[in-house]
Amino acid sequence: MKRRSACLIVGVTLTSLLAPAVLVYGAPPATTQATSAPFFRSAAEEVTRHIQANYWDAKTGLYAHSTTDRNAEAMWGNGVMFSALVAAAKHEPQTYRPIMTRFFIAMDRYWDAKAQIPGYEPWPTRGKGNDKYYDDNQWMVITFLEAYELTRDARYLHRADQALRFSLSGWDDALGGGIWWHERHKDGTKNTCSNAPAAVACLRMAEFRRPEENVAWARKIVAWTNEHLRDRDGLFFDRKRVDGGAVVDHKLTYNTALMLRANLGLFRATGEPSYMDEAKRVAAACDWFLDKKTGAYRDPVKFAHLLVEADLEFHRATGDDRSLARATRTAEVAFDQWRKDPPAELIQQASLARMLWLFSGGNRE
User: Fold this and answer.
1) How many domains does the chain have?
2) Domain limits for position 245
3) Is residue 115 in a domain?
4) The pTM is what?
5) For residue range 187-196, what is the model confidence (pLDDT) as tens digits?
């Protein structure tokens, strides 16, 4: 089962290379529901309770892939689900911290400790595994460090550091650098989704270990991604083929989201204005992803929730109301759609839960 076929949902032709950069915001999209923290807190609780009732296996501590496929979720979905539990545990620690801890331990079934450089496999493994995805491990670095901040449990920091080491092992000189999507390179591409979250992971780890080294890695990764995968409008293409260098020109919210966060992180780490300038340019360009009818991001929530999170980070850094408005509208629309027709896949449910929990604190966490 291939987990990323949905990556081709939103496409754009290479004619967009000639499009002008979007630098000025229009009016923020209107909201139609209450947008207070209590509203989102209630919504987050409703979705998370639904997940626990319909996907969680109390015997194993793992989650099912979907309501129809009861096999354990792939590692990509696990990362989103863990991030949802971390967010939930901030608000309801008595309920969700024990589940979060149990899930962390249960995911050891995916950890290939026998590999030369250990990392998470996409599926449970007995070691010397299958074909690890570098981005799977990068998502875990980011969310484990958030769990470490919340709990100060050194297990999260240690495993995050291990997963980061594996993630950076995917860098080589093909195309002048960049991290492969996965170990076996069957598709022959280096992707925004395996580089942008690596930069964010390095910047987060720099707050705890090896700051100079990790910031240097983030600089290098961001520079490579800008050179090879950034469009003229400030958004990012999905991937680039190593054989021939052709760009696969689909644009997805989560790719641009992590580059927005990487630039914000580099600005915080270095104080260099160019990174904030780039963050503002990227943030302005993200209006391209909005659905004109709803005012929400048009990607599936498993991609869009990461741009909502980046919007909230940008709003906190700059006070920009536009980013907050579109993030809020996306959360409203996604929750309304969920109530009408809950998706079958765990990753969609977990993405919505994560997004709603982010709005559950008065400071737009």
Assistant:
1) 1
2) 36-358
3) yes
4) 0.90
5) 899 999 999 9
